[in-house]
């Protein structure tokens, strides 16, 4: 069984085949989160899309407690190894794919700035295509809409698309992205954490239903969605 849980902002927990994979862990200082990083000391992997504070704030704590492998673009993985003393890291780059115990992870482009808290080089921002035995999941990361999404993510089973605007694509461009990649199901991310990225998520869901072929899912914070073959939930 595969489950996907939104933990607030852009933090997601993917549970599959006994593995717990946390994406962009930002919990302790996240106003939309209701759980603490301490509750993820059994994670096996940490996926990092980029180095901004609201995507890595709790990664060191979780990886140190759990021994989880941190997977990120090369410069960020090296930063975790050298500066944060994380033992298990995999540094990747755009277009590369890593074979992991739960499936494969392909690093794909994202159009966004990137930096680390201490000013160390952070490389490029990224997204991930996670391929499990039964489905493919696209974690777009913080990004604008861009045409190459179609190449990397066409017809994925699940797409997680930012909708908060200002720092990422907003509602209008998210619809363009969904139309372009035609996922079976789509979930919103990176929204309603702070006033500058507040949106009407129900209006977004209605527009997805009206203008795309995707089925929108809008989980509450900490709501686990069970996923099966072809993205059925």
Walk me through the structure.
This protein has 233 residues and is of the alpha/beta class. The protein has a single domain, classed as Metallo-beta-lactamase, Chain A, CATH 3.60.15. Helices cover 21% and strands 27% of the residues. The chain contains six helices and 14 strands. The strands form two sheets. It has a seven-stranded mixed sheet with strand order 6-5-4-3-2-1-14, covered by helices on one side. A seven-stranded mixed sheet has the order 7-8-9-10-11-12-13. Helix 4 (149-153) links the parallel strand 10 (136-139) and strand 11. The relative contact order is 0.15. The mean pLDDT is 97.
CATH architecture: 4-Layer Sandwich
Average of per-residue pLDDT values: 97
What name is given to the CATH topology? Metallo-beta-lactamase, Chain A
* Number of extended strands: 14
What is the number of helices?
Answer: 6
Are there runs of 5+ residues with pLDDT below 50, and where?
A: none
Secondary-structure-based class equals alpha/beta
Overall shape = globular
CATH top-level class: Alpha Beta
Q: How much of the polypeptide forms β-strand, as a percent range?
A: 25-35%
């Amino acid at each position: 069984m595969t489950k996907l849980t939104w933990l607030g902002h852009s933090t997601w927990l993917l549970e599959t085949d006994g593995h717990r994979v946390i994406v962009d862990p930002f919990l302790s200082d996240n106003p939309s989160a209701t759980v603490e990083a301490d509750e993820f000391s059994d994670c096996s992997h940490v996926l990092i899309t980029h180095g901004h504070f609201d995507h890595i704030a709790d990664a060191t704590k979780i990886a140190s407690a759990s021994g989880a492998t941190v997977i990120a673009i090369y410069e960020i993985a090296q930063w975790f190894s050298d500066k944060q003393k994380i033992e298990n890291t995999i540094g990747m780059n755009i277009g590369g794919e890593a074979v992991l115990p739960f499936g494969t992870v392909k690093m794909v482009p994202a159009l966004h700035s990137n930096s680390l808290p201490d000013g160390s080089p952070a490389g490029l921002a990224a997204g991930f295509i996670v391929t499990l035995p039964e489905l493919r999941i696209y974690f777009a990361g913080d990004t604008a809409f861009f045409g190459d999404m179609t190449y990397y993510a066409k017809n994925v089973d699940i797409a997680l698309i930012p909708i908060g605007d200002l720092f990422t694509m907003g509602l209008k461009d998210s619809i363009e992205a969904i139309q372009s990649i035609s996922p079976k199901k789509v979930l919103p991310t990176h929204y309603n954490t702070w006033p500058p990225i507040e949106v009407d998520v129900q209006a977004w869901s209605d527009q997805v239903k009206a203008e795309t072929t995707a089925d929108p899912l809008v989980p509450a914070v900490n709501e686990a969605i069970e996923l099966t073959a072809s993205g059925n939930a």
